[in-house]
């Protein structure tokens, strides 16, 4: 049963699917729209505030000295992924609608996920301190880099560029609460760290709120009427192709750079994953006024595929002989 459970959707993904279904049949409309928008903004701000309060400066500094590994992870996350999306455009574009392809390019510009990247690295007996440093730094740098990358990629994809106002808004909505959390960490950091369940509730709850709000708007604009079933099936194929390409390239880079097995594992899991937690709030800000539901759909699909594939890979690495990767530090 444990082996079978790795192939099944996790509980949070089931919540996501349920939220999409609720938004599809009972979308917010009228006076409910500004109300849900306000609640969502507060929840997202609280999420980044708590992350700022919880993330220790020691964790950020712990693996900075391993600059070759971190540089390669950041290059893969913010440069290689967009290149893959653009190079594969002739293959991916016919599989999906133009709006879904825009979502694919947005996905390629996002920072790496934090929790699952570290969890899979630990499970696979990789370099955990380096994973903590890279994943955390990627999430923070993404607040600056993703809006710029999306602007460049969206222009190349043939859509309207992201406005400077959107970049400023994302700084205020995401970065400012994070900075406030860091500033108050001395007083509330220990309290927040002891309440991981609270952070998880806010984390997942804010995402579900954003998904409901985004999909309500998209459904009201005719998302499901304008997205044929073949395009949804094509989206699954497109997300799988992008993930496989990223995994193969990171594995190749690890060998070329002669990294140790633990470092290669860290590169594999931190360099091939994309953040749902950061991506959905960013999409709501960067693509305000557009069909955000269609734009975040590729991210939601990619999220589940990466969880299942990386769970299988982590399980295989964990069973390898020898003690490489052990003693790399704890979370």
From TrEMBL:
The chain crosses the membrane at residues 12-29, 35-55, 67-88, 100-120, 132-154, 166-185, 227-254, 275-295. It holds the Pfam family SBF_like. The keyword Transcription regulation does not apply. It comes from the Bacteria. Gene3D superfamilies: 1.20.1530.20. GO terms for cellular component: plasma membrane. Keywords: Membrane, Transmembrane, Transmembrane helix. InterPro entries: Na+/solute_symporter_sf, Put_Na-Bile_cotransptr. PANTHER family: SODIUM_BILE ACID COTRANSPORTER 7 (PTHR18640:SF5), SOLUTE CARRIER FAMILY 10 MEMBER 7 (PTHR18640). This is Bile acid:sodium symporter. It comes from Bordetella bronchialis.
